[in-house]
Amino acid sequence: MVLERLSRNKAIMIAIISFALGAFIYNYFPVIFQEGNPWPQIKGVAQLTFGGSDMVKLSSSDNSYLTKSQGGLEAVDGLLRARGYEFVEQMGSGYFYGSSESNTILVGRQYSRFYTIWTLSEAQPVSRDRSLADELEDCLPKSDMGSLEKCNELLATVDDFTDCVDAGFPIMKSNPPQCTTPAGQIFIENGQ
């Protein structure tokens, strides 16, 4: 009789715990699964809490790291400096780092109130010897103020027919040939 009562109490306790766990997962489903499969984050939180490390790599396939919210940026900054990167600038939640070989962008997003996920994106190396035409091709289609200012600076360097042709602007088939900039300037070959 005592064994029956104990096994019935165990069954009731297991049912209550299962119901509470199911209700918790149901209510917090969007938070728990905000990054997809939550197991890498759960493992990372356990390593940060009990392992004593400042930063944990979440997966071997991508460049995602988990840190505590307080002091997390300093931990990732130390990793990047150890790899030879120097801080360049910050734009919103993006931190730009550069080295002599390549550039990287560090983006942080809150995983919860206590943890931050950092993602590193390797950028292609920036060529320092780009032609005027390539640089103008990058900035002319854009409408932001930074691109407008850069394009105006580049257009100000166009002083003659040769510069206009090197910038990739159209050449009119006239006698003598003429080159026209988007600003309406016309340059004639041989300065006539």
Give the helices and strands, then pairings.
Elements: H1 2-27, H2 29-32, H3 39-51, E1 55-57, E2 64-68, H4 72-82, E3 86-91, E4 94-98, E5 103-110, E6 115-123, H5 132-139, H6 145-156, H7 161-166, E7 171-172, E8 178-180, E9 186-188
Antiparallel strand pairs: 1-2, 2-6, 3-4, 4-5, 5-6, 7-8, 8-9
Regarding quaternary structure, what we see is single chain
Q: List the strand order in the largest sheet.
A: 1-2-6-5-4-3
Order of helices and strands: HHHEEHEEEEHHHEEE
- Kindly report the average pLDDT value: 81
Number of separate domains: 3
Outline the structure in words:
The protein is α+β, with helices and mostly antiparallel strands. It has 3 domains: 1-32; 36-123, no CATH class; 132-191, no CATH class. The chain is 42% helix and 23% strand. It contains 7 helices and 9 strands, in the order αααββαββββαααβββ. It has a 6-stranded antiparallel beta sheet, sandwiched between helices. A 3-stranded antiparallel beta sheet has the order 7-8-9. Strand 5 and strand 6 form a beta hairpin. The longest helix is centred in the first third of the chain and has 26 residues, at 2-27. It is elongated, with a radius of gyration of 29 Å. The protein starts with a helix and ends with a strand. The model has no long low-confidence stretch (mean pLDDT 81).
Short recap of the structure:
With 192 residues, the chain is α+β, with helices and mostly antiparallel strands.
